[in-house]
User: Which sequence fits this backbone?
């Protein structure tokens, strides 16, 4: 059923009030096909929403907004070492992680509590605490919006990069991810090297952690640093961490000796955008009912009632001031709608 003039407030974790001209949900792939077939020719635009956790609504949305409510998580194949788990695009990402942990399957415990849906996860190759979805990806199915056929994408087809995939680039707007299959391990290799995880486990006296212990550590770390979108509107990291050349980094480091960074294997350097923003003086800054989070400068927050345009303008001011201080152009990670 298509509704008109629907407030998208419940469908975006930034907690912005913006209206969809028309709105419908799809619970099956056939429903999605029918909606696209019937409305593609007449609507000015069709926007697909997942969990709404990586968008900033800066205006009312013209045309038809479709919410992915495809459900189901199941083990589709397994051998002695691995299980292949398929989840529908409208499932919550964290429910997928919980399913894996309940079934003693390793690989995504570091990605616990990331807000958003399964379908959106590969789109931006979500990552946290040393793991990215590409590390456990097997395949995905997506509906070609113009041909209305399902297509399978392999790892190579997705062209994953740091918070990147083919679906944010060449194929932007052309597919709806309907399901995702991950290759999860029965024999667990834990990745606790991200400092805070080891510290958390050591503090608890856990010497031989399980995937559940790692998941609990990640949840505790996230809760201590990142605002809970149910309480304070936000979309996680607003910007990407910029990647620069080693030469450019050396020059910057002379001027800013404490600059937070990680050396990549390919001789590039990833800078902590949070450090740049904090050093430019933005951390904890509040303007009316929105601002920059006090514990993590990479996260912009809506304390309630801010407009998307106000938050966008704040992000523009941050971008400009980081650029003038460091000569680095930050890139937004959140999709601006
Ligand atoms: N830092 C500061 N000030 C800040 C924030 C960070 O100086 O206000 C510096 C510190 O030196 C800190 C370093 O930045 O050690 C890294 O900070 P953190 O561990 O919080 O990670 P991040 O690089 O800021 C990335 C992801 C997060 C992910 C964490 C943990 C991006 C854009 N963000 O943040 O992902 O949870 O690592 O792996 O890559 C998201 O994408 O929405 C997200 C939250």
Assistant:
């Amino acid at each position: 059923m298509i509704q008109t003039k629907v407030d998208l407030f419940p469908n975006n974790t930034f907690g912005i009030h913006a209206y969809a001209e028309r709105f419908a949900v799809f619970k099956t792939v056939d429903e999605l096909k029918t909606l696209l077939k019937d409305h593609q020719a007449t609507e000015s635009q069709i926007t697909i929403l997942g969990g709404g956790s990586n968008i900033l609504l800066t205006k009312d949305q013209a045309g038809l907004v479709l919410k992915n409510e495809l459900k189901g998580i199941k083990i589709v194949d397994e051998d002695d070492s691995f299980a292949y788990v398929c989840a529908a695009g409208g499932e919550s990402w964290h429910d997928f992680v919980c399913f894996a942990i309940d079934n003693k399957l390793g690989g995504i415990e570091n990605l616990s509590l990331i807000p958003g849906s399964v379908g959106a996860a590969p789109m931006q190759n979500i990552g946290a605490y040393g793991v990215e979805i590409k590390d456990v990806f097997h395949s995905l199915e997506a509906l070609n919006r113009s041909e209305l056929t399902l297509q399978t994408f392999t790892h190579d087809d997705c062209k994953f990069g740091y918070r990147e995939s083919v679906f944010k680039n060449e194929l932007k707007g052309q597919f709806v991810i309907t399901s995702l299959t991950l290759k999860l391990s029965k024999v667990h290799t834990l990745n606790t090297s991200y400092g805070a995880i080891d510290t958390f486990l050591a503090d608890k006296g856990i010497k031989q952690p399980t995937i559940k212990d790692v998941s609990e550590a990640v949840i505790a770390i996230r809760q201590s640093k990142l605002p809970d979108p149910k309480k304070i509107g936000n979309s996680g990291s607003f910007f990407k961490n910029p990647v620069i050349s080693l030469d450019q980094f050396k020059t910057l480091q002379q001027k800013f000796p404490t600059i937070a960074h990680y050396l990549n294997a390919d001789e590039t350097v990833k800078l902590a955008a949070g450090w740049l923003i904090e050093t430019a003086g933005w951390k904890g800054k509040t303007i009316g009912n929105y601002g920059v989070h006090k514990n993590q400068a990479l996260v912009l927050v809506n304390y309630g009632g801010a407009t998307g345009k106000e938050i966008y303008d704040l992000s523009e001011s941050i971008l400009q001031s980081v650029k003038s201080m460091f000569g680095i152009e930050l890139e937004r990670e959140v999709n601006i709608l």
About this structure: The chain has three domains: 3-68, 73-185, 233-336. Residues 233-336 form a domain with the Uridine Diphospho-n-acetylenolpyruvylglucosamine Reductase; domain 1 fold (CATH 3.90.78.10). The CA atoms of residues 284 and 293 lie 5 Å apart. The mean pLDDT is 96.
